[in-house]
Amino acid sequence: MTDTRDPAGSPGTTRRRFLAGGVGLAAAGLAGCLGGAAGSGGDTGGTDGGGSDDGPVAVASFFSFYDFARKVAADTPITVRNLVPTGLHGHGWEPDASVTRDIVDADAFIHVGTDFQPWADRAIQTLKDDDVDTQLINVREGVDLIPLADSLDPDEEGVGEGRGRDPHFWLDPRRAKQSVDNITAGFVELAPDHEDTLRDNAETYGADVLDRIDADYEAVFEAAGRDVVQLAAHNAFQYIADRYGVQMRPLVVNLAASGDVKPSDIVEAKRVIDENDIRYIGAGVFETRRPAKQLIAETDVEAYYPVTPYAGVREDWVENEWGYEEIADNINMPTFEVVLGNTPPEEAGYDGWNQEWRNFE
């Protein structure tokens, strides 16, 4: 990562510089606790947001909040980096020990609150144990989480102090605005001389992007001829259901994308598909497509189309500089138009969307 030392050599940054070497040993000890590492940190998942070589660096544990942060940091010295490698789902990913060193080297760590990403919790504990002054920015602070209720697998307990609550709040653009506010407050502490720019960026992004996405989603669901959506995906879309008055039926009721599909899950999905005359379903971009293919083979479903909880990015999305906004517009929204029966697949999305995404691999 970029060296972020203050030219004046403040005590905090000098201490971080000293601890970076020591924490490398501590982090190496954590490697055994991390299990099978899917990859190391440090991949931006897109272009670094804002910043300069001698400005503050903020690292993010999750793509959505990396994207929000880089939009807030535009035209300031703050550099924002995504720790989750391209092509991986941010919920369930377990990095190797280098991610802890990246966090130690950074001036701020943007995270999703406790008990959502175990590796992030361990990294935060390391920071506290070693008295590292990396600023912690919790994007979930002050967000109203909805109850998991019947959508929760009986074997799961929820999220930390919000046990029994659904952590995927950023799917609701209105709640996402609170996380933008949290990031902005943290960045104002990080770069107080740029407060006006940071707050202006956040206000513009909230109004021009999140409010617009909210209105577009509302129009899609209000125009729908049905109110049931079957997803061959994990349980990440209940905030869409709550916000827009639709039934989102996940195939996997676990919260993590790595949840196994049980025979009873397939049986229940078949029932929903049959009772609601469903012809198109959504499938998770970063999840296995085997269950979606099984439903096509064993029901009247004709095709599956992509959905994603904005938890990661594909290489082509990075090349096209897609963020939360572009993924909403080009992936989730056209799929919801199709599965709700609003729009024929061949008329959905951008030119060529149906050919690219129908039963995608």
List keywords for this structure.
four-stranded parallel sheet, 12 helices, Rossmann fold, globular, alpha/beta, 10 strands
Can you identify the CATH superfamily of the largest domain? Answer: Nitrogenase molybdenum iron protein domain
Radius of gyration computed on alpha carbons: 21 Å
Tell me the distance between the termini. 33 Å
| CATH fold-level assignment of the largest domain | Rossmann fold
- Secondary-structure-derived class: alpha/beta
- List unreliable stretches of 5+ residues: 1-47, 150-162
CATH class of the largest domain: Alpha Beta
SSE succession: HEHEHEHEEEHHEHEHEHEHHH
CATH hierarchy: architecture of the largest domain: 3-Layer(aba) Sandwich
- Estimate the strand proportion: 5-15%
Task: Give a quick account of the main beta sheet: strands, pairing sense, barrel closure.
Answer: 4 strands, parallel
Strand order of the largest sheet: 2-1-3-4
How many domains? The number is: 2
Question: How much helicity do the residues have?
Answer: 40-55%
Count all strands and give the number: 10
> What is the count of DSSP helices, taking H or I runs of 4+ residues?
12
Explained architecture:
This protein has helices spanning 11-34, 63-72, 98-105, 118-129, 173-190, 195-222, 238-244, 263-275, 290-298, 315-319, 324-339, 353-357, and strands at residues 57-60, 79-82, 108-111, 135-138, 158-159, 162-163, 228-232, 247-250, 280-284, 303-307. With 361 residues, it is of the alpha/beta class. It has two domains: 57-211, Nitrogenase molybdenum iron protein domain (Rossmann fold), CATH 3.40.50.1980; 222-357, 3-Layer(aba) Sandwich (Rossmann fold). It has a four-stranded parallel β-sheet with strand order 2-1-3-4, with helices on both faces. A four-stranded parallel β-sheet has the order 8-7-9-10, with helices on both faces. A two-stranded antiparallel ribbon has the order 5-6. Helix 1 (11-34) crosses helix 4 (118-129), helix 5 (173-190) packs antiparallel against helix 6 (195-222) and helix 6 (195-222) packs parallel to helix 11. It is globular. The relative contact order is 0.12.
